[in-house]
């Protein structure tokens, strides 16, 4: 199979983008450099905050910027697109249209993976933008998986970890994280989806239990490799 060039629209945040690239390198089966994928990364770190824009009615302003970025990557020969920002998947259908059906949808990939693991009820840890738009809920329910979102107190802890800690270059408060996760476990969740790539950074920092925590960034890594013609290293 001929390999396809992958475009990564990143910078949301930059560390998550770095982790996705590193995961793709580490999980591609290779015997030399030429077995790796060709990847073009645009780390657009100065783009407006996705949650703020979506929750305050500035979606079209944000999309105008994103669409130009996608056109740039596509114009540079990228045949597939990945966006390591869950909240940005608010625009998933538009990304897919711009890429002629070759947008690698992290939320849909994670929903399918979660269902394939046999989970019937999962918790979602994500930004307010992702939660309030029920992005994971809509995707998971199509696969017969029930979704539980954190209560307001737990959600405020999740947002604090994402914005006050990880995005500020800190490691993240594990006690705060575990408090939020415990509230989901107490509601009968069989697993928790790390549905924000800043929480994927947190996962790298603390090496959470992969039997219980489903990392969306890890799931989309496999999809990127396989869709672009690489061999995924299990």
From TrEMBL:
Presence of keyword Cytoplasm: no
InterPro entries, sorted: Asp/Glu/hydantoin_racemase (IPR015942), Asp/Glu_race (IPR001920), Asp_race (IPR004380)
Keyword hit for Plastid: no
Organism domain of life: Bacteria
Keyword annotations from UniProtKB, A to Z: Isomerase
SUPFAM superfamilies: Aspartate/glutamate racemase
GO molecular function, a single term: amino-acid racemase activity
Residue ranges that the Swiss-Prot or TrEMBL entry lists as coiled coil: none
Pfam family, one: Asp_Glu_race
Stated family: Belongs to the aspartate/glutamate racemases family.
Entry protein name: Aspartate racemase
Protein source organism: Eubacterium ruminantium
